[in-house]
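INTERNAL AUDIT FORM
Audit reference: QA-55
Scope: verify that the stored structure record matches its stored sequence.
Auditor: D.O.
Record contents follow.
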Amino acid sequence: MEKFLNDAIQKQVMDVLVDLENPVAILFFSSKVQQCEYCIETEQLLAEVVDLSQKLTLKIYDLEDDPLLANKFHVDKAPGFVIAGQEGEQEIDYGIRFYGIPAGSEFGSLISALLLVSRRHSDLNEPTKAFLSGLTKPLHLMVFATPT
């Protein structure tokens, strides 16, 4: 399969990934049972990104073969992946999930998420942190993007 990232884009991404502070793991989930359109392409794209920095790792799982792990990380669709902090053998879940292939404008969101998790803090301002600390029930926030 042809590469997604040409030499110029690889160089741009490497220049950005230099700012990664701590290791980040991408936990990718495909499926042998679900109709998994873009699973192969998503895995390839993630592998190409991971190859651009020693601070990134890609771990590949299957929803049906690894149901406990998928449940632990709340992944129920494929292709789906988690951006997690990596501390030794432990993944730190910051709640960041992607479903589908992060192509087009979503590619920038992927790179931003990698940088954010690598810093281990959100950059939220104090009023926002205060508001969020006052929440008393779990909040499930989903952001949808469609290709244009």
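Auditor finding: record pair retrieved intact. DSSP finds five helices and four strands in the chain.
Action required: none
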